[in-house]
Amino acid sequence: MANVTNKRPLSPHLQIYKPIPTMVMSIVHRITGGALYVGTLLVAWWLIGAATGQAYYDWVNWILGSIIGKLVLLGYTWALLHHMVGGFRHFVWDLGYGLDKDVSTKMAQASIVISLCLTVLVWVIGFLIRF
């Protein structure tokens, strides 16, 4: 079909939309879902290290215990928790609740806050248990 006005694209693109919290959280939900694949490979690598032997396990723990390794694990923790919170948000929508514009916007904003708070909580508990 020809675009007779030549003033707008045939189909909408992200460049013409104003980012709103629900849109941003939808995109972040997809990104965190993809990041979970990489993080799960790290968990599998750690388990393989544990099954392979003490020397290899110590080496994997050394890498994951480095500053860069901890930052990656922190990101994985946040991605996991944020994806989980986003999943709960979608579950609530599937039940038919929270579909109002104001409520869905507040839920989107709350999902980022809740996921960050849960990430901090998990890491604080992890460090407290370690010592």
TrEMBL record:
The heme is bound between the two transmembrane subunits. It is found in: Membrane. CDD domains: SQR_TypeC_SdhC. GO terms for biological process: tricarboxylic acid cycle. Heme binds at H83. Gene3D superfamilies: Fumarate reductase/succinate dehydrogenase, transmembrane subunit. One of its GO terms (cellular component) is membrane. GO terms for molecular function: electron transfer activity; metal ion binding; oxidoreductase activity. It is a multi-pass membrane protein. The chain crosses the membrane at residues 27-48, 60-81, 107-129. It comes from the Bacteria. Keywords: Heme, Iron, Membrane, Metal-binding, Oxidoreductase, Transmembrane, Transmembrane helix. InterPro entries: SQR/QFR_C/D, Succ_DH_cyt_bsu_CS, Succ_DH_cytb556, SuccDH_FuR_B_TM-su. PROSITE patterns: SDH_CYT_1. Its cofactor is heme. Part of an enzyme complex containing four subunits: a flavoprotein, an iron-sulfur protein, plus two membrane-anchoring proteins, SdhC and SdhD. The complex can form homotrimers. Membrane-anchoring subunit of succinate dehydrogenase (SDH). Belongs to the cytochrome b560 family. This is Succinate dehydrogenase cytochrome b556 subunit.
